[in-house]
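ok here's UDP-N-acetylmuramoylalanine--D-glutamate ligase, seq below lol
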Amino acid sequence: MAFLVVLGGGESGVGTAILGKQKGYEVFVSDKGKIKEKYKNVLEHFGIDWEESKHTEDKLLKADLVMKSPGISDTVPLVKTMVEKGIPVISEIEFASRYTDAKIIGITGSNGKTTTTMLTYHILKNGGLNVGMAGNIGDSFAKMVAEKSFDYYVLEISSFQLDGIQDFRPHISVLTNITPDHLDRYEYKFENYIASKFLITKNQDSADYFIYDQDDEVIGSWLSEHPIKSKLLPFSVKRTLKEGASLDKNEIKITTQEYTIKMMTDSLALEGQHNLKNTMAAAMVAKLVGIRKETIRECISNFQGAPHRLEKVLKIHHVQYINDSKATNVNATYYALESVKTPVVWIVGGVDKGNEYKELMPLVREKVKAIICLGVDNEKIKETFGNVVDLLVETFAMEEAVKVAYKIAERGDTVLLSPACASFDLFQNYEDRGNQFKNCVKNL
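and the structure came out like this:
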């Protein structure tokens, strides 16, 4: 019996353990931190051995195969030792994909991947397909493969998950954009991160499709130097394309050899230019898998959007409060500031991942009347914007930040939580940060 070691006892780890057990592996889950009670219960239920708060190296190095959770870096000494010993170390999406014949739609990018994944799933499901949504969102892919039988999977995939693939091959891959993010995991080299994102195309061939943003210079220059085998379907809001999705005045036009479909932009449920692009990508996927035009049009007009992404919370005394806690990097915050049309009281800060805030400067000068820092270390934000806005306040708890915003904001303003940073200094994750913001606003 082959021995499968699962590093990390979270969603992807426990999902992999369940699938591994089902497929006849001897499975052992090892987590250097604490495993949540709900996951321990699942492991106990399936009779899977586990350990927490340590890695018993002697045992782990006997593995035939290792699944490493995405949160664990390749530079961890234990992982390096495993690789040196010739033990294959793979990601959950690689492991799970070996046990399904379903068609896979893989969606990655620095920003927009959650919205694009949810919208694609929404259209495919309403179009009558037997489809599951997993990856970085919802249930783990491995758990779904173990427990369900879908014909299609729409997967949101992070660069960390792509780093651990060998044969993983999506039939349709989508790359929404590439901006510097997670550089702390990539030796602070942008080119390493770019290469990681393009792994989504690594095993594709001419029967597969690659949908990407042609307006993104980073993607364009990489493609010019690294040709890929899949069929290219670009989208653009700047130029008209013979093939792909483009903008013609206030109409989205999707053209391939087989069909043309047109949709009015004012029918889109999601606001902002970035969401125009997310919609183009999702609509192209839907067309490729045979969804009817009418269904696509209907779905893009009634889609609710991702939680914690430009989520309107409440209007209080003619001030709009918006929760954009999912904006964990500068580019996501750029989209948020770009889409708000009124003066902004901006709540920003958290764990900086090597951020360069200067690209936000034009938008901050134009729209932001006050900055409320919400983080343990706010020096970089203060340095960059201290002389640009009239008012900059430091806070160290969500309730305090929201109360300060309430005092500062005037009729017609927007209070925007768009942190441009990770959340781990003061919160469990970006969802916790967003939920706290919503609760504090509701308690005003």
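fwiw The CA atoms of residues 235 and 277 lie 7 Å apart. kinda neat tbh
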